[in-house]
Specification:
16 helices; mainly alpha
């Protein structure tokens, strides 16, 4: 399928446009059977990185169509690739498919997400990319966790850890913490804490050599890990520890992670409500509702509704105000 200039034209609006000579080569590759060159693939790598960052700020919905077009462009390059560039094209296609899967998952479109994760995993294996092959399994574990399927979460996270040799320390650490969250979800505190400690050791080692980590792991640092500790504590109903970790993580999380900050604020509000801190919980929740409606739905939205239900069960006077604001933005 030939996409023509559409993806190039739309993506240049982001400020990531190449110079004139490179733009001509990109357009030529898309429109004809000319051979792919490394400079074109370098540019597409940078564009994908920029779109990942954009999704942190604006959410998935505005980017899905653009990324589908961009993936078509990458796939169309396969027939023109030669030598080592063949693996680069397949790897790039795998990364695009994984990003599309994540965006579908973020919008709670499970069937679409699973399809894209399967395609990404297949392309990653074809390209010999162990890190992406493991990442797709780990993201499936995350999807199982989000649906409350603790055993499947643990099994997929363990598969991510051991099915592909040569993965980076960060990718291994990501899978270890995902397995920990699966155990926490099922109430198995000892296994959850053991794997969180193992993940902590892996992230510490990974931070010593960040250049060894794949580019899509840009967010995986001590701040993010602290927030995940808070999530595990929530599953174990250790509300005070959850509030402590999530508060520390949110204070350190840059504002550019607007979608993630919205999600973790919703979780913080929920944990505060469970602690009986109804006034503070409602304040955090209501401050989060506009962003949840704009970029965080449906997961943040569901968490805010769960928090409002806690306030309602407890008979907190703040429950009605919170529910009214949720209805206003619904």
């Amino acid at each position: 399928m030939t996409i023509g200039k559409a993806p190039v034209a739309s993506l240049t609006l982001s400020g990531s446009a190449p110079d004139e000579d490179l733009l001509a080569r990109v357009t030529s590759v898309v429109e004809s059977t000319h051979r792919v060159d490394a400079a074109t693939l370098d540019w597409l790598d940078r564009l994908l990185a920029e779109h990942r960052r954009a999704e942190d700020r604006i959410g998935a919905r505005p980017l899905v169509d653009v990324m589908r077009q961009q993936l078509h462009t990458v796939v169309d390059m396969f027939s023109g690739a030669r030598g080592p560039l063949v693996d680069r094209v397949v790897r790039l296609a795998s990364e695009h498919a994984q990003f599309l899967a994540w965006m579908a998952q973020d919008q709670d479109d499970t069937a679409t997400a699973l399809t894209w994760y399967d395609r990404s995993h297949e392309w990653a294996l074809e390209a010999g990319d162990a890190n992406m092959a493991a990442t797709t399994l780990n993201m499936k574990a995350h999807m199982a966790w989000s649906k409350g399927r603790a055993t499947r979460c643990v099994r997929l996270a363990e598969a991510a850890r051991w099915s592909a040799s040569g993965t980076s320390l960060g990718v291994q650490g990501m899978a270890a913490q995902m397995a920990a969250r699966g155990y926490a979800l099922s109430g198995e505190a000892d296994d959850a804490r053991r794997l969180l400690e193992e993940a902590q050791r892996l992230i510490n080692r990974a931070s010593e050599r960040p250049e060894d980590e794949p580019v899509w792991m840009y967010f995986y640092d001590e701040t993010w890990f602290t927030l995940q500790r808070g999530m595990a504590a929530m599953h174990l109903r250790d509300w005070r520890t959850a509030v402590e970790h999530i508060t520390v993580g949110l204070d350190a999380l840059p504002d550019e992670y607007r979608r993630d900050k919205t999600w973790f604020r919703a979780c913080l509000a929920h944990a505060l409500a469970e602690m009986g801190e109804s006034t503070q919980a409602a304040s955090v929740a209501m401050a989060s509702i506009p962003d949840a409606a704009a970029v965080g739905r449906p997961h943040s939205w569901n968490e805010l509704h769960a928090m409002a239900a806690v306030l309602l069960r407890r008979g907190a006077k703040e429950s009605q105000q919170t529910i009214a604001m949720l209805r206003e933005y619904d």
